[in-house]
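Figure 2 data, in text form.
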Amino acid sequence: MQVEINETATIKKSWQNLKTILKNTFTPVNRQKEARNQLAGLKQTGSVSEYTMKFRRLVSQANDVNEAEQLDKYTKGLKPELQRLSNCSGKRRQEKLWKDSIQKN
């Protein structure tokens, strides 16, 4: 059982490394910059699901947004009432919700 878990973790890490290498090789720098700019201005106007899909796409295109920055930008782009709920829920809960949402990808 432990061996399977280790193998799965290794495969997942290898896959993430391969994705990063491919993106870095084939994504033009200005496209990454454009995605970062769009990400900075992204605001939720519809459902959370729609916002999350757009956010994930832009993070993927930007290719170099660390997890803390993602959490910050994601939260700031939410509708004000959801931002207030997020702030009230505490940092640990917020981080768990964030990690749960990005792991669905």
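Caption note: The first helix runs from residue 2 to 26.
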